[in-house]
Design brief:
alpha/beta; Rossmann fold; Alpha-Beta Plaits; 2 domains; six-stranded mixed beta sheet; four-stranded antiparallel beta sheet; 9 helices; elongated
Length: 280
């Protein structure tokens, strides 16, 4: 549905988008994630045909795409994060939509049914009820076959709806994968959290003696057991505790969140760029 190849956007000497390759498949909910200033808005502007790439190319529905391709641009629906600056304050929502329909020469906007939805920070500023309503609407549109491309830094919400995500930092594409694969790839070890009535002395040391346990610490009445990435060690942990005459009140495995993955990836990028810059 959308492809970019070595996409670059420069403003003078500043490179906002640096060689990004994207491929969004039909029927996907695709999250394009990054902090403010990462290059998300510059990418949106190029995909909408508002600005031209400095270099690289874009394909929409398998065809070369640019501002002159109104036939392709008509097949995109866009929800911006903010009301466009300078728009008339008295204009109604219907008039606003009709205005843009006229710009793109859409003669019957009431019947228009875009194949792709671009959503820029769709839950920004919403309360919990509004967030759920937007989430349900996104999922509903996707079930109807709509491809949805979401630009956001609201990571916890994107984790709930996106099939695949791309993480951009300082104009560079740092990672792109399905949610499960991305989190699995970045997970170095896992944590099993065990709630007990109380934690007896030296329990942590005894737990560390197990071959499958990498580390063990206590926080209040919760035992945090670090285990290798591969395998299910909950049974081993629970059997050991029962053998110590302890009854686990709750055993829960903590998995890596998208927010933690994002911080890991972007921090590694910053450290790499700092190191390279220092060598220069």
């Amino acid at each position: 549905m959308i492809q970019t190849r070595a996409l670059v956007k420069r403003y003078g000497s500043f490179t906002a988008v640096n060689g990004i390759d994207l491929s969004i498949h039909p029927g996907e909910i695709y999250g394009f994630l990054g902090p403010n200033g990462a290059g998300k808005t510059s990418t949106i502007m190029m995909l909408l045909g508002i600005t031209r790439p400095t270099s690289g190319e874009m394909l929409l529905f398998g065809e070369h795409y640019g501002p002159h391709r109104l036939d392709l641009r008509r097949r995109i629906g866009m929800v911006p994060e903010k009301h466009p600056r300078g728009i008339w304050p008295w204009i109604t929502a219907r008039e606003y939509l009709r205005f843009f329909a006229d710009l793109f020469e859409i003669t019957t906007p009431e019947e228009s049914d875009p194949d792709i939805l671009l959503l820029d920070e769709p839950i920004s500023g919403l309360d919990p009820i509004g967030i759920k309503q937007v989430r349900d609407l996104i999922l509903s549109e996707n079930r109807e076959g709509r491809t949805i491309f979401i630009f956001s830094h609201q990571l916890s919400e994107m984790e709930k709806v996106c099939h695949r995500v791309a993480i951009i930092s300082q104009g560079r594409l740092m990672a792109e994968d399905s949610m499960g694969s991305l989190l699995s790839r970045l997970t170095r070890d896992r944590e099993i959290h065990v709630d007990l009535e109380s934690i007896p002395p030296k329990l942590e040391r005894r737990m560390k003696s197990l071959p499958s346990v990498l580390d063990c610490i206590a926080r209040g009445n919760t035992l945090i057991v670090k285990v290798p990435k591969e395998g299910d060690f909950r049974k081993v942990v629970s059997e050991f505790l029962i053998g110590q005459s302890l009854v686990p009140l709750r055993i829960q495995e903590k998995t890596l969140s998208l927010e933690e993955a994002f911080i890991t990836i972007t921090q590694e990028n910053v450290e790499t760029l700092t190191t390279v810059g220092g060598r220069q």
